[in-house]
Structure formats: structure tokens, C-alpha cells
Amino acid sequence: MQLGFGYYHHRRFVKDSPTYRRWFTYVHLWLGRLLIVLGLANAGCGLKLAFVQSKYVIAWWATCGFLAIVYALVSLFAWYTRDRKFEGSGRWSPGGEIPGAGNYNFENPRLRKAE
After folding, report:
1. In the predicted model, is pLDDT for residue 110 greater than 50?
2. pTM
3. Could you please report the per-residue DSSP string of 27-74?
4. Ramachandran assignment for 100, one of left (phi > 0), alpha (psi -120 to 50 degrees), beta (any other)
């Protein structure tokens, strides 16, 4: 299913050159994140079921916890700096200008309030 959403997202992106993220893009992104977390949990449970020494199972979960904290901090930092960078500009971009792509704006015009 993830592969299908990724393929569909790519085909529509190339075909339409959208200026905002659409529903299937969000499904693809969040489903991918969920599958990564579930895969990490599956590996940790598999270590326990394979009768691996407890110190390795603990090390696995500690590493996963550390990576989750780092991911959350980097995401919050990126979100905070992105909002400050485009404050008052009326647009949102994941990392500023994309070379060769012009102004790629993810704002959904259907959600824009009437001025």
C-alpha cells in the first residue's frame, strides 16, 4: 500500500506540479512514519523472542528511544525555524527555495480564508 501511494504521489507530482500537498501525499508520509516505528518495535520484540541476552534487548530499546528523541527535537527545531523564516510572508515552504523549481508553495488555496 505504501508503495502504491508513493508511486501515485510521484506520478501526480510530475503531471500536475502542485503548489500544495494533497491528501495522498500526507497518507504516504504518515503511513511511512508509522511503518518505520512498527518495524522498530517488531525488531525489538523479535530480539526478545529469539532469546537474545537482555542487555542487547535493552540496548536496542535505548537506541530506539534516543533516536525518537533526536527525531522529535530536530522536527520541532525545523518547524520553529521554518515558521520564523516565513513569518508574515503568507507562504510556507519545507526548506526555502528549491533550486530550479521556482516558488514551490505548499499552501492549500482551498483552505485559504477569504480576504
Report:
1. yes
2. 0.59
3. HHHHHHHHHHHHHHHHHHHHHHHTT--HHHHHHHHHHHHHHHHHHHHH
4. left
